[in-house]
Amino acid sequence: MTFSQSEAKLDVVGFGNALVDVLSHQEEAFIERLGATKGAMNLVDAAQSAELYELVGDHTTVSGGSAANTVIGVNSFGGTAGYVGRVSNDELGDIFSSDMQRLGIAHTTPRAPTHDPTGRCIVFITPDGERTLNTFLGASNGLRSSDVDLDLIGRAKLLFLEGYLWDPPEAKTAMRYAASAIGANGRVALTLSDQFCVERHRSSFLDLIDEHVDVLFANEHEVRSLFEADELDRALEMARELVDLTAVTMGAGGSVLITQDEFTRIEADPAARVVDKTGAGDLYAAGVLYGLARGYDLRRCGQLGSLAAEEVIAHLGPRPETSLRDLAGVLA
């Protein structure tokens, strides 16, 4: 049996906040003056977003959002991808949708009306490469179950859920709806996204993981917060009991991938250049998800994740500038 383009299986379908990123380099003192939590995602309203934008100065603008960055990474590896995320029928929404179309990523989510503007994330990057996110969710916040394309979800080998989208109740319902529709041959992956996000939603995250999640992504702080564990090793053991696969990033400490039967450690490249950490976790997830979709072993999946993360932190912005497919050739 041959599949048409619309029927063919997709390696990954991402589900998240569709945003346009505004990236700006700033000094530590700037973050302190704002009173923002460095390295965290801070939710702001439309007025606050406009005020911050006035302070930005020189900047780079790219379409993004965490899960969108991940599926773009999968695409760069040569994988096939789709995306569920709501933008407005405005100029920024046109930019976002055009980017997805140009890359060949299926994006069928209905547009919001123009009075509900496309969300944007103002990202301040300090000299150590750490990023502080100030996010106005805009139209992405209004995603509903009725916006979910079940045909698209049904084509996914892996459905990738973004924890940032867990805040709005209707979006939370839509994520559960999509996870329930994945089908017997698909798997559900979740990224915890942010430690403060975990603290807001610990109980319901655990319920979602128990009911639907096969693959869990987190950094060491997020996974410890999820399980309220003082030690990382304890958190990893608790994750092992709950999820088929847990992938945890530890910055310069590399990453670990854990199943019931395997514990795989991936060392970070000590020579990796750090310019901007925006998208590092997103691209790590892209490499691991691509590897899982293609049936690779855990070590290769982790290596692909590390390779993608190291590429994206070496330059400004959350997307790869070099073909990850070409870079991955060194792992063949």
Topology of helices and strands:
Blueprint: E1 10-15, E2 19-25, H1 28-34, E3 41-43, H2 46-56, E4 60-64, H3 66-76, E5 81-84, H4 91-103, E6 106-107, E7 118-125, E8 131-138, H5 150-154, E9 156-162, H6 169-180, E10 187-191, H7 195-212, E11 215-219, H8 220-226, H9 232-242, E12 245-249, E13 255-258, E14 263-266, H10 280-293, H11 298-312, H12 324-327
Parallel strand pairs: 1-5, 1-9, 2-7, 3-8, 5-6, 9-10, 10-11, 11-12
Antiparallel strand pairs: 2-4, 7-8, 12-13, 13-14
Structure description:
There is one protein chain. The radius of gyration is 18 Å and the shape is globular. The protein is α/β, with parallel strands linked by helices. It has a single domain (10-18, 66-108, 144-331), classed as 3-Layer(aba) Sandwich (UDP-N-acetylmuramoyl-L-alanine:D-glutamate ligase). The chain has helices at 28-34, 46-56, 66-76, 91-103, 150-154, 169-180, 195-212, 220-226, 232-242, 280-293, 298-312, 324-327, and strands at residues 10-15, 19-25, 41-43, 60-64, 81-84, 106-107, 118-125, 131-138, 156-162, 187-191, 215-219, 245-249, 255-258, 263-266. 39% of the residues lie in helices and 22% in strands. Helix 8 (220-226) packs across helix 9 (232-242) and helix 10 runs antiparallel to helix 11 (298-312). The strands form 2 sheets. A 9-stranded mixed β-sheet has the order 6-5-1-9-10-11-12-13-14, sandwiched between helices. A 5-stranded mixed β-sheet has the order 3-8-7-2-4. Residues 1-5 have low confidence and may be disordered. Belongs to the carbohydrate kinase PfkB family. InterPro entries: Carb_kinase_PfkB-like (IPR052700), PfkB_dom (IPR011611), Ribokinase-like (IPR029056). It comes from marine metagenome. Keywords: Kinase, Transferase. GO terms for molecular function: kinase activity.
